[in-house]
Amino acid sequence: MRRKFIAAVLALSVAASAAGGYVPMTGIKQAIRSWLDRDKVLSTHFAGEASDETWGGVFTPDDMVTLKKDRDRDFVILNLTDLHFGDYDYRRFTAWGVIFTAKQLVKRFKPDLITVSGDIVCTDSTVYSVQRFTDLMESFGVPWAPVFGNHDDEGNCDLQYLADVMRKGPHCILRKGPASMGVGNYVVGIAEDDGRGGEKLVEALVMMDSHHAACNAEQVEWFAWAAQGLRRLGGDVEITTMMHIPLAQYQYGFDEQWDGEKKTWKSGSGAVGTCGEKVCCARDADGAPVDNGLFAQIKKAGGRYVFCGHDHLNNFSLVYDGVRLTYMMKIGRASGFSPLLNGGTRIVVGSGGIVRISDESVLRTVLAVETNE
Fold first, then answer.
1. Interatomic CA distance for residues 206 and 220, integer angstroms
2. Can you say whether the dihedral through the CA atoms of 56, 58, 59, 62 is positive or negative?
3. What is the pTM of this model?
């Protein structure tokens, strides 16, 4: 009888959420509900509604999400990556460490925007973990913008469903983008007053779905279209690309700037940080990095920064062919972990664009880059 009562209460809570309002599910409620529904959940596939968004024509402000920056203060972005929440295996418990660390970082830095660069959930069941993640993000009360990684759709929820759950959060600014390009290709603009009664774009974050290896050809064309439109709207607006999986140029830059004999960065290279594993970019059958053409479009657009996650033991940052390529710091203990690389990445945006990038643990700054390239 008690079990039926608990199930009825939880069913009402879920029904209220489905009706359109965002209803966070507490840890206790989620644990009970997942225990009651485990067999059913593991045998069910959860599919979301495919996006009907299109692109083309003239890029307008409606084609991006715009956030406001105060003229007299920096705009702080906190990035989290590779959280790896799961419903039923050990990741259900390692998630508590991620939650604690995220809360400490948000309390410390008071970000204006939280970006999340993929592998948010993983394992064969993710229907409860995506809700747990969404509840965590919403608890901070600030805008948050995720992209997906290669593990996010490996379980019983497709990316459309994950996006649908996240988008119920009132602070989530994720846009799905055209379905032919994946899920989560969109632009976040950061604007401040121009002193003449209007607004000036100071930073544009191009958020991209890198799928299981790399962006597809349509995404490269879409990036070029969006970048051209951003230049038309914002003049010298700084364009930054965020995704999960690194570009081939991360490997090219490492090969060029790493001294294999001395096991350190070459003098004068300007590269900083740790390379603890092989660069996991798209590769051909022989293991050579595959260049999908996106970097060339980033260069053509005058883009200065690319950020990625994916490689849990890498946090290096280097400049290759005029573009700073940076790994963002992994958070949490699940799925490959180093205690020295556990936290988030803080990106500070001033009136002229990005001025500082730093990897932050709960206790200290791990590395910092003053961006005066």
1. 11
2. negative
3. 0.92
